[in-house]
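Q: Could you fold this chain for me?
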Amino acid sequence: MIRKIIMLCLIAALFVYMLVYFITDAILYDPFSGSVPKEFKPRQDDFALMPQYAPAWNSMIYEKNLFSPSRSYMRSVIPRKTPDIPPAARPVIALKGIVIDAFGDYVAYVTIDRQKAVPMRKGDKIEDVELVDISDRKIVLQWNTEKINLTMDKIKTIVKPRLKR
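A: Sure. Below is the predicted structure, expressed as structure tokens.
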């Protein structure tokens, strides 16, 4: 127990000594109270002892500088060939039916590329196919510059007469 008290007293004494030393040398110090040192005047011999420095950037380093503004990104001026795109194939279009809606306008049900039938009115455009004209039995579609006529009439074929036996 006595050892602990002695150690604690030594630590307290050391702390008080450091505190006093800090206050006298750091806080109460007046830099203008003492003599001011004379200005340094180098002699001629001192210049000979000083090393001579050369510029760090010689021409080789300047040319290979990664961050030089002259090494900025420049777009190539080489014209690129556009690949020849083949013309689009004509879609498979089928007319499923024509009805009159509640407003008295004709509505055509058209399938494009064997998908679900879509209702189209005059002026509607789906993909590249536009409905130009519609009547009770036929429609006119425009695909690119080509006009496509579709009708509801069935193709009449010659029916062979039955042979009598």
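A (continued): Strands lie at 93-100, 106-112, 118-120, 125-126, 129-134, 138-143, 146-151.
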